[in-house]
Amino acid sequence: MTRQPQSRQALPRTPNKLDPIPGRTASEEQTLGMIVGLLSEITVLRARLDACERLLVEAKLLPAGAIDSFAPDAAAQAEREAMRTRSITKVLRPMQELAEQELAALTKETLTTENGT
Amino acid sequence: MSWNESAAAQSHPMIAVPSHDELVEQLFVRDLKLHVMQVLEPAQRAIAGQILSDADARISNNPLANLRDAMAPLESFKSWLGIKRESQRQLWAAVAGSVERQADELEQLAAIADPLGSVTLDPDFTVPAYVAQGDIHLMPGGNGFDDGSVLQGAVMDRGGAVYMLGRNGGMLNDLRGQTAIAHLLTIAPDIRPTRILDMGCGIGTSTVPAAMAFPDAEVHGIDVGASMLRYAHARAEHLGAGVHFSQANAEATSFPDGHFDVVYSCVVMHETSPAAMVNIVAESKRLLRPGGIAIHLEVPLIHTFGDHWQEFSSELEAQFNNEPNWRGALTADHGALLRDAGFAEVQVGYQSTATDARSSDRVFKEASDGVFRSWFVASGRAPQP
Rounded to a whole number, what is the distance in angstroms from the first to the last CA of chain A? Predict the structure, then answer.
């Protein structure tokens, strides 16, 4: 049997007929889908890191438990702290943005009241 | 659990083999599904139990509707339903990615030089409305999908095994077919069929067991999806089974009258419609020679369910996982369907799950042993003239 596929397009990812769940907004469904997607990514990432660690130990490039007993020096600590802060700021940006917008609106309101305009 | 991180080795030659990351992604789906089933669902069951213990619900003549109304506004109910469906979407997305990466290898594997069987496609085939109107099990593109490749079949194979959480014969996913053939050997131990037909064969998981149990028989499988059928052919060949696959609607095939000794279907009825069920049973009768045997295997019927929650939960599964004829198939009087179609010696009951049709214990009885431990079966014989 020799046969060439008519096309080599990506397989579809969205099923036909997704009944709405009563009382759930589209935005709630989106958020859920994104969180579960991230959970999947994190799970794969952790497994890959675990595989790396085990392979490095097996290849005798790392002693067993080396990562758990790792003590970063001062410079490394500073870099790692910056990495953590960057991640937190990046992920929680929308919360900060909204707070800033609400603060700006309130400030404008106060100024307007004080100026009597 | 028969499926784990050694799963890449526990396969058959045609199945899409995941990389390290893809396998973890698929195992994540399995574990997410187990979490939804074993941690989140019991809480919903407890809530339902509380609602049902209310006196008003007990005296209601429609406790299921009451339960639906009482649970629908609950936030935990909505989020359980949402994550249950999302777990299913994650399943297909994970498997599709892995299959796409292996597209070239899979096509090469599917190019069989000297096949034992065949695959015949119909370019003018119209997929029945009950398949086209909603993608069954939320598999994107649906069972009728065709892009000229074997990829949708590969998605269905690997995805189906993950979907069943490995409980239906691991990566072979063939226990329903083994069980249908075990039923045949229960009611006709010495049968030596010349021709056998599997209606709604999908990727042939239920068809190959017939070819293995009856190596001298001419075994056919029909279904609606071209990609699935191409893949089914390749899969069967790699398993050493000669099967003739063709694209046809089980309600009305082009095989001649009385062409087969055995016609069977496995979990097909609940994916069709009430009218189609009648047609499929009638078609299975038309295709049998006098004395030939029809077997239709299904999931356990609703009246065997233990409680209202189980029934409600299965209705939600049917609605949000696109099972078009769930209630129709699970409440039908299958014995009457077969008798009305003209079958004799009609038997209705539960066949214990067989891992191998020939060597497993053959037990057929009235009561269900529970999901996966036994399968509902209705069978009958075409009358002798």
Answer: 82
Task: Please give the Cα distance from B289 to B353 (Å, whole number).
Answer: 28
Please name which of B52, B333, B292, B88 lies closest in space to residue B187, comparing C-alpha atoms: B292
What is the amino acid identity at position B247? Q
Q: What share of chain B is helix, strand, coil (3-state, %, to 5)?
A: 45, 15, 40
- Gap between the Cα atoms of B142 and B98, Å rounded: 18
**Banded pLDDT at A4 (limits 50, 70, 90):** low
A-chain residues near B111 (CB < 8 A): 1-3
Per-residue CA distances from B13 to B104, B234, B243 (Å):
15, 10, 17
Q: What's the rounded Cα separation, in Å, for the pair A49 and A52? A: 5
SS3 of residue B150 by DSSP: coil
Residues of chain A with Cβ-Cβ distance to B87 below 8 Å are: 36
Taking CB atoms and an 8 Å cutoff, what residues of chain B touch A47? 20-21, 24
Q: Tell me, what amino acid is at B259?
A: H
Residue written as token pair 């079958």: B343
Check A11 against B112: CB less than 8 A apart.
no
Cross-strand partners of B222: B199, B246
> Which pLDDT tens digit goes with each residue over B284-325?
999 999 999 999 999 988 877 778 898 999 999 999 999 999
Residue B200: strand pairing partners: none
Report the residue count for chain A. 117
pLDDT tens by residue, B165-178: 777 787 888 999 99
Q: Are strands B260-266 and B195-199 parallel, antiparallel or unpaired?
A: parallel
Q: Which class for B253: exposed (0-12), middle (13-18), buried (19 or more C-beta within 10 A)?
A: buried
For residues B245 and A86, give the distance between their C-alpha atoms in angstroms, rounded to a whole number. 57
Please tell me what DSSP assigns to residue B306: S
Of B369, B326, B325, B331, residue with least CA distance to B349: B369
Do the Cβ atoms of A23 and B320 come within 8 Å? no
Which of A2, A13, A22 lies closest to B72 in CB terms?
A22
Contacts of B140 (CB under 8 A, 6+ apart): A11, A12, A13, A14, A15, A16, B92, B96
As a whole number of angstroms, the distance between CA B169 and CA B36 comes to 22
Whether residues B138 and A18 touch (CB distance < 8 A) is answered with: yes
Task: With CB atoms and an 8 Å threshold, state whether B90 touches A28.
Answer: no
Chain B residues with CB-CB distance to A5 below 8 A: 107, 147-149, 151
Q: Which two tokens stand for residue B322?
A: 């696109």
Q: H-helix or E-strand containing B230?
A: helix B226-238
Tokens 């949000």 sit at which residue? B320
Q: Do A12 and B20 touch (CB under 8 A)?
A: no
Compute the radius of gyration of chain B from its Cα atoms: 21
B115 to chain A: nearest residue by CA? A1
